[in-house]
Amino acid sequence: MSVTLRCLKCDGQDLVKPVRLHRKSILTCRTCNAIALYGDLLEASGRRLMADLQEQLASMRAG
Ligand SMILES: [Zn+2]
Questions:
Q1: Tell me: the pLDDT tens digits for 15-37?
Q2: Structural domain contains residue 44
Q3: Which of 34, 33, 29, 37 shows the shortest CA–CA distance to 13?
Q4: Ligand 1 mean position, distance from CA 56 (Å)
Q5: Of the N and C termini of the chain, which has fewer Cβ atoms inside 10 Å?
Q6: Domain containing 28: what range?
């Protein structure tokens, strides 16, 4: 499963990444020029994934 990283500010997916990524790597958003730590973006995408799954589960139960 691939994780999509998104800018925390504008939700853009066009991020400038350094070649070697670690949790403290700084990524820059090409759209709004916001910077974020790779670790923070990973965490955010994990939370988004969980929220999506819970939503799907909820709709399955409702259906
Ligand atoms: Zn952005």
A1: 999 999 999 999 999 999 999 99
A2: yes
A3: 29
A4: 27
A5: N
A6: 15-62
The number of domains in the chain is 1
33 lies in some domain:
yes
Residue 2 reports pLDDT greater than 80:
no
User: Could you tell me the distance, in angstroms and rounded to a whole number, from the CA of residue 29 to the centre of ligand 1?
Assistant: 5
Residue 22 counted as domain residue: yes
Do the domain assignments include residue 39? Answer: yes
Answer whether 0.85 is exceeded by the pTM.
no
CB burial readout 43-56, b (16+ within 10 A) else e: eeeeeeeeeeeeee
Q: How far is the CA of 32 from the centre of ligand 1 (A)?
A: 4
* Separation CA 34–CA 19 (nearest Å): 19
Report how far ligand 1's centroid is from the alpha carbon of 53 (Å).
Answer: 25
**pLDDT value at residue 19:** 94
